[in-house]
Amino acid sequence: MRVARIIFDKFTQLFLHHQSFSGYVEPVVQYFLPAWRDGSYRAKVQAVNKLSSLYVEVTLKPEKGWPRHLAGQHINLTIEIGGKLLTRTFTIASSCDEHQLTGAIKLLIKVGENGRFTGQLYDVLRTKTWCNISNPYGEFTINSLKKPLLLVAGGSGITPFIALLSQHLPLIKEPVRLVYFAKEHEHQFIEQLNALQMKHEHFSFTQCVRKNSHPVDVYVSENRLSDVYCCGPFNMMKQVQNACEAFGMPYYQETFGVRKELLHAAGTDSNRFTLKLKQSSTHIKSGGTLLEQLELQNLPVIRGCGIGVCHQCQCVKNAGVVRDVRTGQLSDSGQQLIQLCVSEPVSDLELNI
């Protein structure tokens, strides 16, 4: 099967000017299977609920064959907006037992008014029947169920903890405490957390508004025998990590979002970045398009019109940020389809070419 795929892809590159055979036949397959894309799973949109001005809950039913996820893992969600495929990473907000029972998974998504993806997500998904999701991945899972746990969440960082608590609380006998920071009136899953607290005597949670609460290291110091798990804004996680190091406590974290410091530091002509390819890596500069730089290094890329019209140089960006030289618009940080001829790097990149 693998040999046949390589042969078909090579034929397609030589005679049809596409990177892969599956990409060439994709529009035909989509006529019968909406949103079908090679390397992704289809998921049916079951519900899109606006929880507040900041948060949306999305319920998806993955197609058969989607692998069973572990509580705390995340997926790449891909939707088409304005003819472009945009991808972002979201943590699954439901347990694997719930998926096995209902066939569905839930996502809690913080929507940004100015976000190219999340700002449009509610309206777009309400009109979509299908979208694409990746395999579940990530290692933010409970290391030991036999030790006291302190969970520290900030904002949408509550998402992995909802899945972890739902999945593991029945199996845990040691005390589990959740400290949950969010803006006033923006805490999510409170009904579910209250139900878990009533059902499991060893679980408790504290609902915090940062301006009215103790510093986060106070909560860490009160639970010195615990393993500490943290997910939230960068500065909050750094405070928790520093406190854990000071008290000698085991610490695990989940980072989400793109740090603004990375984008502000990037984009000057003096910057050099690492480009990771399938079987090798190289260095690239912030100035100049990816197509120009890869051609100068004699790397295997296809050149078409060179101005972003024919799409022959398109490829999948798995990670990193690029700038569209025509508009100055920055890409998302996750998996996304880009055109090499109109994209210049502003961070380290991983490409599938």
TrEMBL record:
tRNA processing as UniProt keyword: no
Entries under Pfam families matching the protein: FAD_binding_6, NAD_binding_1
Signal peptide: none
Gene3D superfamilies assigned: 3.10.20.30, Nucleotide-binding domain of ferredoxin-NADP reductase (FNR) module, Translation factors
Transmembrane segments: none
Keywords: Ubiquinone
The FAD-binding FR-type domain, residue ranges: 38-143
GO molecular function, one term: oxidoreductase activity
Cofactor: [2Fe-2S] cluster
Stated name of the protein: FAD-binding FR-type domain-containing protein
Protein species of origin: Pseudoalteromonas citrea
